[in-house]
Structure formats: C-alpha cells, structure tokens
What does this fold into?
Amino acid sequence: MERAVRELWAESRDLLGLGSPSPDDTAAAADVPRADMPPTPLAFLRDHVSPGRPLLVSAAGTRHWPAASLWPTASYLTDALRSTAVSLHLTPDGRADALAPHPGRPGSSSRCFASAHVRRVDFPTAVRLIRGSDPVAGVVAYAQQQDDCLRGEYAAVAGDVDAHVPWASEALGCLPEAVNLWIGNAHSVTSFHKDHYDNIYVVVSGEKHFLLLPPTEHHRLYVRDYPAAHYVAEEDAGGEHQLRLKLEMEEPGRIVPWSSVDPCPASPEEMAAQASSFPLYFDGPAPIRCTVRAGEMLYLPSMWFHHVSQSPGPNGLTVAVNYWYDMQFDIKYAYFNFLRSLEIDDCSSGKAGALEGDLEEKND
It folds into this structure.
C-alpha cells in the first residue's frame, strides 16, 4: 500500500505540473505557478480551481489598493485604529494552534494541541507588543483573529483593500465568507494544517513563507488525535511586562486531529527524532516552497496542507489579508476522504516510537 501511495504522490504532482524532487534536491524544488497579471475568471477556474492547483499573482493585482502604500508605513494603521480594541493572541514561543508538551505529563513524549491566550487590547498596545515579541521573554503576540475580523474589529481600515477578489469571486460563484487581517513579526509560525476554504492570501507588508503539500500527501503529516489545551495568563505586579503564560488542559476535554510533523526542528537532535518518527514526510518528495512578497497574492486551494512562517517589512510587522471562500464538497472531497481512510503500514504499525505517547492521549 505504501508503494502505491508514493506513486500517487508523484503522479499527482506531475499532473499539477509541480514535480516531486527528493528532500535533498533543493535545486529542483517545484515553484508555484506564477501570473504577472490577475487571471480571467475562466482561466482561473480551468487552470487552478478545477484541478486544485495553487497560483501566485504578482503585485499588479493589488497596486490599486490604498493599503499597498499606507499599511507598510510606521504609523498609518496605529493612527487609523487608535481607539479600536482588538483580539491579540499570546503564546510563549509564537506557535499557536500547534502541538506542545502535555502539561500533565512532564518528562514524557506526550503532546497536546495548544491554543493561544486571547486578550483584548487597544490597537496601539497590540502593535507595541507584536513589535516587541520575543520567545526569550516568554511572550509572542500575534493578531490572528479568524472570524471575519477585517470586516469586524478592523472595519475602520477595511475600505483600504478590495471587499473581495473579483476574478476569484466570479470563478468560484460566491463572495468570501470571511476576510481576515493578520499582523505579526518573525517569531510567529503556523504549523501544518489544512482549511475547508479556497484561500486568497495577500501580503501587504513583509513576506510569508509557505511550505505546501497537496491533499494527496495526507499520510505524510501523521494526523493524530490530541487533547486540547490553552494558554492562560499569570501576571505579576508589574503588569503586562511581567506576563507569564501557563498551559492548561481544557475542561471539559476535547480532541483535535492535528499534524504531528514539525518540518523545521530547532536542533540536529530534534531533526533526527522527527525524521525517525515521521519517515513518510522526511523521506518523501520535498514540500513545495513559496514566498509571498508584499503586494502578491497566493491562491491556496482548499484541503492543501500549509506551514507558514514570516519576515517583517520596514515597519517591523508582517501584515496580510486573506479571503476565505467556501469550498465545494465535490468529487475531490470524496477522493480525499477515501485516501484518508487508507492505512499505510508505516502509519499504523506503531513503529515510530515517538508516537506512542501521542496515541495514548486518545483515551484522555
């Protein structure tokens, strides 16, 4: 079965024109198809939406946005949102919605799914905390509220960008369900996950660095069930500068399916442990790498797995907007569910020793 699935990985990438180089062959790494101008709705539907193929569109698609010139400045957003309260997500290390050591099992390999501590602050305070974020200090701040926040708490600046992406809306036959604003610095990292949305992701300041895997490579990410936890804040008398975050298990408990793979381990020892535990990822074809620069927009088809890191712009921030369009639960979704139901010996035999503690958590 593993051999057949590996053949599927290569054939699927070949069909999409993306190639499947080995992890060590960085020179042959596939590029996401790029367009110098936004596509017509027909071309977008035919060449990208229907086959599920990403697309990177140049800055020509956003030059008319007021945000393109205003948001990268040092003070525009702070002045425009001075009296606005926003939701700020806080973690010790910049990894929200990611795996973390299980707080109830110190010293073990058991992990949990950790969500950020969310605090309402005025926007100038949010920007100050984001710019000053550092894992060494134990707090990394990221504005990543994913509830249509650009048209909600950031409505004062929503008019600086298009309300929707016209060529995408026409091709997809609908308007976006949510439009979100993201503001962070270099320390915020989003772990591998997939969304049930067609995503148009636009960077306004700085850069976003994506690692991409198509839905056919689901098995490579070792999606397991993890108990949910969240960070809570403990403050000393010094206030926010003495903020400490503690991870607590959620009550009542709930289970979250999540990828077990960290594609960018911090040390050679951690890399060796990851490669030993998750060989389908580290021995498979290299992930597709894509950097989205200021002004550019990435079309990310629904169900594609993506890991995201970022680099700040001249204002010290990475600022992005994304448009989520409802996915079509069509034959591609049925194929994905069928593929997900298949068992591969490597994934099901338990031979990856580091997973043993993770699998025990299903009974928590």
User: Anything to note?
Assistant: The radius of gyration is 21 Å. Residues 347-364 have pLDDT under 50 and may be disordered. The longest strand covers residues 223-234. DSSP finds eleven helices and 18 strands in the chain.
